[in-house]
Amino acid sequence: MEFDHTLLRTFVACVDLMSFTRAASAVHKSPATVSTQIARLEAEIGAPLFIRDTRNLALTQTGEELEPYARRILRLHDETVEAFRKPDIAGSITIGAPDDYISHIMPPVLRRFGQLFPRVAIKIVCAQSTVLVPQVERGDVDLAIVTRSRGVEGQLLRQEPMVWIAARDRTALERRPLPVALFEPGSQARAVVLAALAKSEIRFQAAYESFSLSALVTVVEAGLAVAAVTRMSVPSAVVELAQEDGLPVIEHLDVALIRSAGSNNPLCDFMAEAIRNSAKGMAR
To answer: Inter-axis angle of helices 213-221 and 99-116, to 10 degrees?
Structure first.
């Protein structure tokens, strides 16, 4: 059995604070993500770790048995990282990702990297996958988190559901043809949305298009159209539509990490590993 140290760190935070909410703040994740990570750890072990009620949190016998091992594993992990820490290393690294991937995957990565390599300059390129792929191929970007499409492989980080969103009053849903806001031509997100609509009997119109997630969300929030975005990027200003709203199910997106030919160095290796751990630790 192999344990993900990210899950163990969340577990120890819950033990120390005896609260999923306070532990979420300590590990810089949402309470929902903490609950999901504890559930994943319990599934791997095959037994509950906490006794939960409305007010209190307590360890089960299995949780009590796991605690000293978890602390030992984390201590060894941190000692190993510190042993190979090179704060005097200088240089630069360029990372690319669309804005939703940056805001959800990268914060813990950048925090940890900055602590270990304070003299390394980090350049972040916020762009769509269609722009980032050729930049990585040219070597302008070292590593990029992109959506897999035809001809783009890389290492799979996670599979991200695509969901429909609308304004809170849902007025755009009632219009025919249905106004749909789409990502830019050539993007995989646009392709899967159009494929889903083509299989349905819904009359629709590609009313708006943009490479910018925030632009699409603004159009949706204004009630001008519906759109499909990754579940991780649904903002609170709009509503996520359900199956009973009548829109077709959309194929998920494969989120992958790609690297340039010149990224074969310890800095990029460390960054790539941190990105993989962060993506894996996110709630599904």
So the answer is: 130
CA 155, CA 145: separation in Å to the nearest integer? 10
19 or 89, greater pLDDT: 19
**Predicted confidence (pLDDT) at residue 194 exceeds the cutoff of 70:** yes
Here the tokens at position 212 are 């910018």
How far apart CA 230 and CA 210 sit, in angstroms, is 15
- Nearest partner of 138 among 267, 261, 256, judged by Cα: 261
C-beta separation of 157 from 281 below 8 A? no
Mean pLDDT within 140-158: 91
Positive or negative, the Cα torsion across 78, 80, 83, 87? negative
pLDDT of residue 183: 93
pTM: 0.69
Q: Give CA angle at 277 (29, 6), nearest 5°.
A: 55
Mean local confidence (pLDDT), 135-141:
95
- Give the whole-number percent of the chain exceeding pLDDT 90: 56
Decide: residue 95, CB within 10 A, 0-12 exposed, 13-18 middle, 19+ buried: buried
Q: How far is CA 14 from CA 31, 182, 201, 271, in A?
A: 11, 41, 49, 27
Report yes or no: 68 and 81 within 8 Å, Cβ to Cβ: no
- From 279, 280, 275, 251, select the one nearest 263 (Cα to Cα): 275
Euclidean distance between CA atoms 215 and 179, whole angstroms: 15
pLDDT tier for residue 252 given thresholds of 50, 70 and 90: very high
Cis check for the bond before 177: say yes or no (omega within 30 of 0). yes
